[in-house]
Amino acid sequence: MAAKLHQRPPFRAEHLGSLLRPDKLLKTRDEVDKGTASEQQLTSIEDAAVQDIVKLQLDLGFHSISDGEYRRHMFWGTFFPGLEGFEEIQNPDPSIFREYMPDIAAFMEKGHKPGESVLCTGKIKHVGSTYLDQWNYLKNLVPADRVHECKLTLAAPNWYHMRYKEGRAYPKDVYSSDEEYFGDIAKAYQDELKILYDAGLRNIQFDDPNLAYFCSEKMISGWSADPLNKHSVEETLDTYISLYNACISACPPDMHIGVHLCRGNFVNSRHFSEGGYDRIATKLFQDLHMHTYYLEYDTERAGTFAPLKSLPPTKNAVLGVITSKFPKMENMGEMRERVFQAAEVVAEGNGETREEALKRLGVSPQCGFASHSSGNAVGKDDMVKKLMLVRKLADSIWPGEP
What we know:
Number of strands: 8
Largest sheet: 6 strands, parallel
Strand content: 5-15%
Mean pLDDT: 93
Structural class: alpha/beta
Order of helices and strands: HHEHEHEHHEHHHEHEEHHEH
Low-confidence stretches: none
Radius of gyration: 20 Å
């Protein structure tokens, strides 16, 4: 995996999947929750909204077309609740969580607690894709020769492990060890990816804030001070990388696999963690078998470009230099210069020219516009302007390239 450079996808101008939902869609989903509208009504409105957002992306010149994640409440979607052996629970007991996980800590600081979570309650088994219908609808909205470009985002395989305290991610009478548990998680992802591949999907993006948590000194201190933890931070990162590699081990070579790291993108544009990629760069870029890394780089909380020295010549990086969190527009000249600076670092790490390094880079917003259905502190016009800037920036650096 990733032994050979994979391109088209990714593209020079990318976005990260989630886009602002229309008010009508949000209103109808709320009515469904209250029992005043039907699922059939919601599906009809979702269908129309997906059609509109696909057209917008095509009109703006994007190629990694998504459905805006319009059928999801949160970016991680429905993969885990759709597995046998997992159960979605409301108002979970706060004591099951590692309170120093940045997203959990943010809730606790505000006097809240996670409103929902998903827990392993039995042996894990894939019993059917919850994404297949969504994918089939999306692919039929684009020309046949562009289906392979369309993108689907998936939850991180470690998502419902890292947040829970040692020994709370699964029942001890169901799994005897993390290795056994992760083995079934990996098999479930393999099954999901095969189903989607057979349906024509060729472009997958994992969304994983957890990997960025390994860059957070605050999280690392909390982990190290936790007497329940049996493994160090480094050992846990190694385990998660091995899990990822197992999940994607059966993917055919023409399936593009990427991973997006960010530091949180919650309601009202809130972030959860800080810290550069330096601590994890070597393992992230060299041990994790991804084709492409979608990296947050819109503020100083993501650190410098120095870690890009570790990016091998067989892998791509999409630089999230434009923020999706706030409406203020970036200066394109400054963004061009930042991309060139990043290319110089990549070139230095591989003994190549800046022009050669640029061939493996692209640009994007640092994260989606609506990781949570409520969306960021921007309006639709702001989002469109940001997407236009991404496309214009890409065209100024790589003219004529998608």
